[in-house]
Design brief:
disordered N terminus, 439 residues, globular, alpha+beta, eight-stranded antiparallel β-sheet
């Protein structure tokens, strides 16, 4: 499979396998000029236009029956500015390539998510994030971007240039235009020490504020049907470098986290009643470990077990209560949940439709193995999240619409007004955007 999730006979499929689309045609532009021409040609033919990254979204945000833009030729670093400490990168560059290229230059992003298969534009446009007390999502690190709008013109945006577009387009959902290049703030490469250790769920909840305040990056996984979590604390370190050994790394990250976990998913699907017992074993499989390495080797890890995911951002002060309600729901419902629940945080930012826009946030992600029936679990979880004015991740399963978003995003109208200005004919419209932004 190529880096972009795909299918046969002109059918496009996403990574999670839960979204499919049949575009009228696919275009792989090799330059911004070619992309502009493709957008103008689509307008002449009366076709909608969508760009797709690696297909890592679980929503139909990139699906279209019009022109599907593949960005794999728009890759690579355009420019490194060591005075401004920025790097400008083509939109189709996978995060993995960006991270490796920056490391070779002795540079790094400040924070990142836990997978790096996505393209930089796909990841930022949907609000991909990691966890951080002081540092936010990948989009919060953007200093400038280049956007091709509905009439084929190229807009450069930053805090100084087209600032109102910059405020929105950093997480633009593909609704304002097609991003062709992004300028990120970078810093000299540094070391992170990771401390992973099991901790009882009740203890994590009781000490959550402390764990959050004392660590630059705190996250944990709770295994439903158990009282166990696996916690991860990442903090900057003066060194020395102490990477995970190759054999230990293979055993823990590949064999346990991916191999055994995949088998557990298969057994769980075949015999759902076994899931609580499997969860007890899984929650104890990963033992405590510490290691020190460059950022992308600590923040990210391989994810080979395919899944479908829902993730909501709730106000940070509501996270403990929300998790207690989630646990009570799982216990009450008779649901058998074989995937851990992931909890992370982000500080408030100033991006119009960022899940952390204007409020310190905590993220709660629920998962189900690919092919498993997830609707009942996700519906019950979503009811809890929305009761706390949760904001769903734009690239993950949710059922919310424009009416709901107008309520939980104070600046929602700012975004839709900008869209009216930049894309009056809805060249970049699809069913998903019609639902979440309104017609």
């Amino acid at each position: 499979m190529s880096s972009t999730a795909s299918g046969r006979n002109g059918t496009w499929r996403n990574w999670g396998g839960n979204v499919a689309a049949r575009p009228a045609r696919e275009v792989t532009p090799a330059s911004v000029e070619e992309l502009s021409a493709a957008i103008r040609r689509a307008a002449e033919d009366g076709l909608k236009v969508k760009a797709v990254g690696s297909g890592h979204s679980f929503t139909s945000i990139a699906a279209t029956d019009g022109v599907l833009i593949r960005p794999q030729l728009l890759t690579g670093i355009r420019n490194i500015d060591r005075d401004a400490m920025t790097v400008t990168v083509e939109a189709g560059t996978p995060l993995k390539r960006l991270n490796m290229a920056l490391a070779r230059e002795g540079l790094s992003l400040t924070n990142m998510g836990d997978i790096m298969e996505q393209t930089v534009s796909g990841a930022t446009s949907t609000g991909t994030h990691g966890t951080g007390r002081d540092s936010g999502s990948i989009a919060a690190q953007i200093k400038g971007l280049e956007l091709v709008t509905a009439d084929g013109s190229v807009l450069s945006c930053s805090e100084k240039e087209n600032p109102e577009v910059f405020a929105a387009a950093r997480i633009g959902l593909g609704a304002l235009g097609i991003v062709t290049a992004i300028t990120f703030a970078v810093e000299p490469i540094f070391l992170l020490s990771a401390r992973e250790e099991p901790m009882p769920f009740d203890k994590v909840l009781a000490d959550f504020d402390e764990l959050w305040a004392e660590n630059e990056h705190f996250e944990f996984y709770w295994f439903p049907h158990t009282g166990s979590t696996n916690t991860k604390r990442n903090n900057r370190s003066a060194g020395p470098e102490k990477p995970v050994g190759q054999v230990a790394g293979w055993f823990e990250d590949e064999f346990l986290s991916n191999g055994v976990f995949q088998v557990a998913q298969w057994v769980g699907r075949a015999v759902p009643s076994a899931i609580p017992a499997i969860a007890q074993i899984s929650s104890k499989a990963l033992s405590a470990r510490t290691y020190t390495d460059i950022p992308y080797k600590v923040f990210t890890s391989p994810r080979r077990v395919r899944f479908v995911e829902m993730e909501y951002a709730v106000p940070r002060e509501a996270v403990v209560e929300t998790l207690r309600e989630l646990r009570a729901m799982v216990e009450r419902s008779g649901l058998k949940v074989s995937f851990p629940v992931e909890v992370r945080t982000a500080p408030a930012d100033d991006i119009t439709l960022s899940t952390a826009s204007g409020r310190d946030s905590a993220y709660i992600a629920v998962h189900m193995a690919k092919g498993a029936p997830y609707q009942r679990y996700f519906t019950a979880a979503e009811r809890i999240f929305t009761a706390h004015e949760g904001r769903p991740h734009w690239g993950k399963v949710h059922t919310r619409d424009a009416e709901y978003f107008a309520r939980v995003y104070p600046r929602f109208g700012e975004f839709t007004a900008l869209r009216d200005r930049l894309d009056p004919d809805r060249r970049f419209q699809n069913d998903y955007l019609r639902r979440v932004l309104g017609a």
